[in-house]
Automatic annotation (TrEMBL):
<feature type="binding site">
    <location>
        <position position="96"/>
    </location>
    <ligand>
        <name>Mg(2+) 1</name>
    </ligand>
</feature>
<keyword id="KW-0479">Metal-binding</keyword>
<dbReference type="InterPro" id="IPR000760">
    <property type="entry name" value="Inositol_monophosphatase-like"/>
</dbReference>
<feature type="binding site">
    <location>
        <position position="93"/>
    </location>
    <ligand>
        <name>Mg(2+) 2</name>
    </ligand>
</feature>
<feature type="binding site">
    <location>
        <position position="215"/>
    </location>
    <ligand>
        <name>Mg(2+) 1</name>
    </ligand>
</feature>
<dbReference type="GO" id="GO:0006020">
    <property type="term" value="P:inositol metabolic process"/>
</dbReference>
<dbReference type="GO" id="GO:0007165">
    <property type="term" value="P:signal transduction"/>
</dbReference>
<dbReference type="InterPro" id="IPR020583">
    <property type="entry name" value="Inositol_monoP_metal-BS"/>
</dbReference>
<protein>
    <submittedName>
        <fullName>Inositol monophosphatase family protein</fullName>
    </submittedName>
</protein>
<dbReference type="GO" id="GO:0046872">
    <property type="term" value="F:metal ion binding"/>
</dbReference>
<dbReference type="GO" id="GO:0008934">
    <property type="term" value="F:inositol monophosphate 1-phosphatase activity"/>
</dbReference>
<keyword id="KW-0460">Magnesium</keyword>
<keyword id="KW-0378">Hydrolase</keyword>
<feature type="binding site">
    <location>
        <position position="95"/>
    </location>
    <ligand>
        <name>Mg(2+) 1</name>
    </ligand>
</feature>
<feature type="binding site">
    <location>
        <position position="75"/>
    </location>
    <ligand>
        <name>Mg(2+) 1</name>
    </ligand>
</feature>
<dbReference type="Pfam" id="PF00459">
    <property type="entry name" value="Inositol_P"/>
</dbReference>
Length: 264
């Protein structure tokens, strides 16, 4: 049975995690202009650097010290093999948008999420260069650099910009071209974290991409807390350990997009 975490406990954890993120950001910025060791994973567009690995090791070590019994899911494999959502699970993305990090030294994020028995408790999405942290959860609320996030307007697709995956648009997966055309314009940022921040702040009405748990774990908590919808591309519930095409949007835009996805 899930044990709801007390607000006081969440506030203490929140303070600790923000300290980790400050230190993590400082570590990355100190090394950002050094010579990177870059390797490919699944393809030449799927990169990992020495800093991705070092940052994940740093964050995993912090979590292990803080909460030795917790399970950790990390993108670069320095956590645990997670097969169940039972108990306390941390999800870590040490550098989200590694291609941007390598080629632009900008437009990348660090993300941390805390789940209890499959339910989101705390999420953190940090725009490293912009020094903007979206943080919080259902019991604490959501904050933008420590200030309560302004309510997100329920804008329909036709009245807003949409963040999309470049490959999905090129392949016209799920009628992506029509989705782009029905919006005021598409934006391709190359980082789930940066897109999620933009949706939370009302700069985009939605975001669609193929994502893994470390890409959406933190954003899912924040989005659902403020009344946005994050589901699979066909509108089904998104599990914490899912790897699939993900749709994040305002409720109106979500409805509009599903109509396009399901046409024909």
């Amino acid at each position: 049975m899930r044990r709801d975490m007390e607000v006081s406990e969440l506030e203490q954890i929140d303070k600790v995690v923000k300290g980790w993120l400050r230190e993590s950001r400082d570590n990355v910025l100190r090394k950002i202009d050094t010579r990177l060791t870059v390797n490919t994973k699944t393809s030449r567009r799927d990169l990992v650097t020495n800093i991705d690995k070092e940052n994940e090791k740093f964050l995993v070590a912090k979590i292990r010290e803080f909460e030795p019994e917790a399970k950790i899911l990390g993108e670069e494999g320095f956590g645990d093999k997670i097969e169940s959502t039972k108990g306390r699970v941390w999800i870590v993305d040490p550098i989200d948008g590694t291609m941007n990090f390598v080629k632009q030294r900008n437009h990348f994020a660090i993300m941390i999420a805390l789940y209890q028995d499959g339910q989101g408790e705390l999420g953190y999405v940090l725009d490293v260069i912009g020094n903007r942290l979206l943080s919080g959860g259902p019991q604490l609320g959501v904050f933008d650099n420590g200030v309560a996030l302004a309510p997100v307007e329920d804008t329909p697709l036709a009245n807003g910009l949409i963040g999309l995956s470049g490959p999905m648009v090129l392949n016209n997966d799920f009628n992506m071209v029509d989705i782009a055309e029905k919006s005021l314009g598409m934006r391709i940022y190359g980082s789930a974290g940066i897109d999620i921040i933009s949706v939370l702040r009302g700069e985009l009405v939605g975001y669609i991409s193929y994502l893994k748990p470390w890409d959406f774990g933190a954003g899912k908590i924040l989005a659902e807390t403020v009344g946005l919808k994050m589901t699979t591309i066909d509108g089904q519930p998104l599990g914490m350990l899912s790897s699939t095409a993900v749709l994040l949007a305002t409720r109106n835009a979500h409805r509009d997009i599903l109509t396009i996805v399901n046409k024909d």
